[in-house]
Amino acid sequence: xxxxxxxxxxxxxxxxxxxxxxxxxxxxGAFLDINFARLQAAGFITPDTGRTASTEAIxxxxxxxxxxxxxxxxxxxxxxxxxxxxxxxxxxMPGEGKTFLALNLAMSFCAEHDLYVLxxxxxxxxxxxxxxxxAREGCGLVDILVDxxxxxxxxxxxxxxxxxxFVSGGRSHPHSAELLAxxxxxLLMQELAARYPDRIIIIxxxxxxxxxxxxxxxxxxxxxxxxxxxxxxxxxxxxxxxxMLEGARNLGCILNLVPEEENFSxxxx
Length: 269
Known about the structure:
- There is one protein chain.
- The chain is 31% helix and 17% strand.
- With 269 residues, it is of the alpha/beta class.
- The chain has one domain: P-loop containing nucleotide triphosphate hydrolases (Rossmann fold, 3-Layer(aba) Sandwich), CATH 3.40.50.
- The chain has a 10-stranded mixed sheet with strand order 2-5-6-4-7-3-8-9-1-10.
- Strand 8, helix 10 and strand 9 (251-256) form a beta-alpha-beta unit.
- The longest helix has 17 residues, at 53-69.
């Protein structure tokens, strides 16, 4: 397995029963009104955020992801059948900053001219991303695999960021890992990537060592980012994570919470 790409960026981190009723989240084109003040207070990027060390670190990461997603520029679409515009964000263990990065990357991508972003909460265990955005309950990623009457359009919520849409994780399910490993899920991911080949799709997943879903998801995405928290993630944990992600396309690591005096943004082998 080739060595993963390494990104160093000093970015701070902010800290069920099965319901048989599945309700589409997008009846009549309803949209998600994001509370930007709440996000800013927690340290997240919003459309009104000025230039800071964090925004510059995220921007440096974003540029490299864009190069891989659209190697010929955004005049065309993402690279072939590999869907390099589909990016998975994960970590070894909970609390290392994956959701923080996923949402900040989505907001940073939205600042690009004529670029649309689909943000997916693939962490059905915590649903932290949906909580941050204030998403209302409704069907999500797992639900469409359970209820064959649902369509992709039933999952997607437009937001108050004009070029950002959101898909929730949906209800908790005791066999979510098996559902995500199914042929049906593979077809769903192919449909999402094929339907939106000219936009960035970001999936926030459960940690690799805490759940098996993220390993399954890595087989359907074009880029995989693993968050490594400085002075917390152990070498053993990272090695186990990378071993479990063997075969993932464009596997990269992001070193998070680097001390300011040591901070630089880099991207390479």
